[in-house]
Amino acid sequence: MSNELTHSSSEMNIRYATFQHRLGGIALDSALCLVTFGIGWFIWALVIWGEGQTPAKQILKMRTINFTNGRPASWGHMAIREFLIPLTVGIANSLTFYLAGVAWLVLEIVFYFTKNQRSFRDYWAKTAVINEA
């Protein structure tokens, strides 16, 4: 399984972020959110979403790209991916007595191990997370 994506229009090679790298990003985002009581993390995220990053992605040199054109995800695209989709899952989770949360976690992990190393949220938002390091 190749870890690179080639867009014929721009002929660029992109390395997907590994599962471990993305897991480290989730842990770092969580720690930063906890340390800043969510406020600092949220302000930082609002500033850099336009670059296709979260605070942890910026520190770990990862970027979310629009899967259809290979460019960094826009601010609106990141808002949908990082806020609206988790909010929707959270609401569904509370309405289904945590069944939706368990299903979401399983889908996130299972989808990641498909051909393009993209999670279920990546497929839903038409994004991919790449490693720029």
Task: Give the key terms.
alpha+beta; 133 residues
The best one-word shape is globular
Q: Can you list the strand order of the major beta sheet? A: 1-2
What's the Cα radius of gyration? 15 Å
Distance between the termini: 20 Å
In round numbers, the mean pLDDT is 88
Q: Can you tell me the number of structural domains?
A: 1
Would you mind describing this structure in some detail?
The chain has 133 residues and is α+β, with helices and mostly antiparallel strands. The chain has one domain. Helices cover 55% and strands 14% of the residues. The protein contains six helices and four strands, in the order ββαααβαααβ. It has helices spanning 19-35, 39-48, 55-59, 75-95, 99-112, 120-125; strands spanning 4-7, 12-15, 62-66, 127-131. The strands form two sheets. Strands 1-2 form a two-stranded antiparallel sheet. A two-stranded antiparallel ribbon has the order 3-4. α4 crosses α5. The two termini are 20 Å apart. Residues 1-11 have low confidence and may be disordered.
